[in-house]
Structures are given as structure tokens and as C-alpha cells.
Amino acid sequence: MSYTALYRKFRPQDFEDVKGQEHIVTTLKNQIKADRIGHAYLFCGTRGTGKTTIAKILAKAVNCEHPVDGSPCNDCPTCRAINAGTSMNVIEIDAASNNGVDNIREIREEVAYRPTQGRYKVYIIDEVHMLSAGAFNALLKTLEEPPSYVIFILATTEAHKIPITILSRCQRYDFKRITVETIADRLMELMQKEGNDVEEKAIRYIAKAADGSMRDALSLLDQCIAFYLGEKLTYEKVLENLGAVDTEVFSSLLREILAQHTSQAIRILEDLIIRGRELGQFVTDFIWYLRNLLLISASDDPEEAVDVSRENLERMKEEAQMVDTETLMRYIRIFSQLSNEIRYASQKRVLVEIALIKLCQPVMETNLDSLFDRVRVLEEKLSDPAFLVSFQAPGRAGGEAAAFGGIEGKGYPGVPEADSPAAPKPAKAAPEDLQYVKKNWNSIIRETKGLLQQMLLESTPKYDGNTGEPVLYVEFRNFLAQTCIDNPENVEILKQAIQKKIGKDLEVKLVLKKNEPGSGSGNLAEISVDNLLQQNIHMDVTVENIEDDD
What we know:
Elements: H1 6-9, H2 22-33, E1 40-44, H3 51-63, H4 77-84, E2 90-94, H5 101-110, E3 121-126, H6 133-144, E4 150-156, H7 164-167, E5 171-174, H8 180-194, H9 200-209, H10 214-227, H11 235-242, H12 247-258, H13 262-274, H14 279-298, H15 302-305, H16 310-322, H17 325-342, H18 348-360, H19 368-382, H20 385-389, H21 396-403, H22 432-439, H23 441-445, H24 450-456, E6 459-464, E7 471-476, H25 482-486, H26 488-502, E8 507-512, E9 524-526, H27 529-537
Parallel strand pairs: 1-4, 1-5, 2-3, 3-4, 7-8
Antiparallel strand pairs: 6-7, 6-9
Helix pairs in contact: 3-4, 5-6, 8-9, 9-10, 9-11, 10-11, 12-13, 12-16, 13-18, 14-16, 14-17, 17-18, 17-19
Keywords: ATP-binding, DNA replication, DNA-directed DNA polymerase, Metal-binding, Nucleotide-binding, Nucleotidyltransferase, Transferase, Zinc
Catalytic activity: DNA(n) + a 2'-deoxyribonucleoside 5'-triphosphate = DNA(n+1) + diphosphate
Protein name: DNA-directed DNA polymerase
């Protein structure tokens, strides 16, 4: 006798064997016991959750000669015929290959004939969303008012594609994804019946990889058993067969990413590729690992939030404290985009490597969540005393450069490296530079801001007529400027603006007009080109007219 796949061999034959869909099983059993059977049912849900299985059990139950608590007995001739697939009362139709109007017309003609055996003629139409628009219209009237001996059971994985006119004529049942615990318990029960030696950890990984589908879980288990026929099925063998990655590898990879060790992260990926791991599965599993970390970080009860072993939970708790939620969400976003791109990519390794580099180097991205990661990295560096000691901080400007780690040459212009020689000081301004300042006074004012700029608009640049030294006196006419004069930072701001314009260091003093007591501005004079130069250079010179920046 040929081998029968596990999911076919252990397909439930009555309602009691169905796992994970108790809300549907209970409703259908009550309908059968109370003889309140509907004429049209719609079973919706993802693959492998039991839609077709329950449809066949329901077909047996409504025709069973000796039902037991709403379930078929599986012993009467009707049940045996349905189990063998020879019953004329249960008609299974694949709508994917029989989706035309003519196929539905054949059904309409057949429903006119009563069942030859049993009470009901049951039509099970699988993947009903594949019917054409014309086929749906042809089915409408029959579906709404079928003969009393006809039951329609429609099954679909995409309920949103079914017309509302069909939905309104059916009792809809939504099949849930089956939990990991339910799948694992069922697999362990079946392995005991088969006499196979399987590790519980291996069973749990297969149950998680099935993503809520009992049929997928049985198929994966069948595949692993066949590969290691006659041997004990261990967790490592399951990972090897499915091309999956152990959670310890994810932990090591995450720690390298948080430390911004790009080369080490790429080396871990290369090792996985050499060991034959499937990159699509790696991306999916790493997203799941990050999701668990996010739940642990946000949950008050991490033990209930994630389903992992105790040792893995302790390690993940430690990692959840090493990274903030914004960074985790950024990692999940990048790998989720990668999951969509890698499916049809020919160079999968390149895409994964680019994603890892993005995770290790948040400066490559400019969106908000990458900014959070960049701030995290900077805070970690600033909290390291050894990092700060390695840079000089001889004053405010030097201290700021040290705080940024000497990032000149890394995309941050204007911040000199701490271990580089100090920048040369600008030359002292000569008396003739005062004339240039006066000619460009308006453009210098534009370099300032706030109250200082408003006061400077009403000021006059002057010099000391007695000494003739290259000192710029800024005379304010408004007494409100005393606030600006008392703030020493304003002098530095103005000096920086002048230095930017003339390229020299000019001494600046802020004063009020001489009629204000204590102003100290009695000897100040307007800056005159000829007098100023003759007094200090003692020769006649011709000064070219300097155009105003305006």
C-alpha cells in the first residue's frame, strides 16, 4: 500500500477531532441536534485551518443514520460511503478550475433530483472566490431558495472577493488561526501514535513555523521525518531541514547591530549562507524575534507576552533593555520592507546585506526613527568616560568638538578634529579696516538676530578720535540698548559677524550716545577715510570705492 501523507492520514473524521475551531464546531453540532440546519454556509479563513474538513464532517453529520451528539458515527453505510468518496450525495467542486457559468448551470440542473441515499445532497464549493461574475449571478437564485434537501457549503480564503449578494444568503463562519500550543499538542499526540521519537522543542518550532495552519504543520513534520528517517528528530535537525536559524544567532546579530559592528554582522550573515540557511526564512524569523523584543519591552508581564523558553526569555529581557522601542520599530520596518522585496529578487544576499548596513549605520537614513537611533548611539558614546578623555576640551568650542568625537571628515563640516592642531588665529585688524566695516555695516547687521539686530539698525559705527586705534565703537542712540551692552555675548556675536566679513579680528566696544551719563563716548568720531589713514599712515593714499554688499 502506498504511503499516505500525515495531513491526509490524520484528517479529523468527526467534530471531536477538530482542534482550534471550537466556536464553529459547537454551533454546527447544536444546529444538527436541534434540526436547525441552514441551506447555505460560508467558511472563511486562512489555509489549513479546517474549512474543507469541517465541511465534510458536516455533510456526514446531516446524512448520518446514527449521529452521536451531533457528530457522525462513521459506521453506517452513508458515513462509510462519504469517507470513501463514493457517495452521490456529497459533491465537491473546485471553483478554481470550474469557475464558468456552464459549471454553475450544471449544478442548477442537478439540484432538481433528490438524493438517492440519505436526507441531504451537499455541494462543497472550494475556493469559491474564483468564480466568475457570471457564475456568481447564475448561483444567486439557487443559493437563495434551494430545494429543502440541498445544502451549499462555500469555502474561501479571500472572503472580500465574494459579492455581497452571495454573502447575504449564507451563514458565515470565520476560521481562526490555530495557536502554537494547540498545533504542538496535536503533533505530539500523532507522533506518539506513529511511534516516532521527536523532541518537544522541535515540535514547538514546527508549530510556530506553520503560522496557524494545522495542515502546514503536518506537512513540515512529514518532511522532517522523511529526511531523518529512523532517527530521533531533534531541534537542530529541524532547523537544518527547514533552512531556519537558531534564536541564539539572532541574539548575537542584534548585539553586533546595536554596537554598530557592521563587519561582524555581515560575517554572521555569511556564516548562515555557507551553512545553507534560506534567506527568506531568515528575514521572517528575525522580524519575529524583533517583534518578541518589542512585546517584552512594552509588556508588564513578559512571560505571558511571548512564547519562548526560560533561558531565551532572560536573554531577550536583557536585550530589550539595551534598545528603545523606536529603534526596534525602525529595525522591524526595514526588515519588513526587505521581506517584500526579497521574495522575487535574484540577488537576495545583497538586499539582506544592505538592510544590515542600514541597521548598523543609522546615519544613512534621514527619517525620524533613524534619528532616534543616531541619538542613542551618540548618548552611548558621551556616557563613556574613555571616549571623552581621548579628546581635548580646552574651552567651550573645543569641548563641543570633543563631545562630537572629532567628526570632521565624517560629514560634519566646521567641527575640527580634537587631535588636530589648533586653527590659526585671524590677523589683527588695521585702522583702514574700520572703513570697510562702515561700508558694509548693513550686511554685518544681517548676520545678527533678535533684539541685538533691532538695536544695531539704529546704531553708528565710530572710532576713538584721540588714539586712532583700530577699535570699533558701536554707538547706540536708543537707551533700551543698555540690555545689549550689558550682555557680553553680544560683543562676541558682533565680532564673529565682522570677522566673517573682513577675515580679521577686530576689537569691538558697545556704548550709548554721549548725552547718556556714564556712556564714555565723548571722544568718539565718525569714521572718515582720509583723516583716519593720514593720522596713522602719514601719507596721502587713494582709497578705491568699495561696493556695498547690498
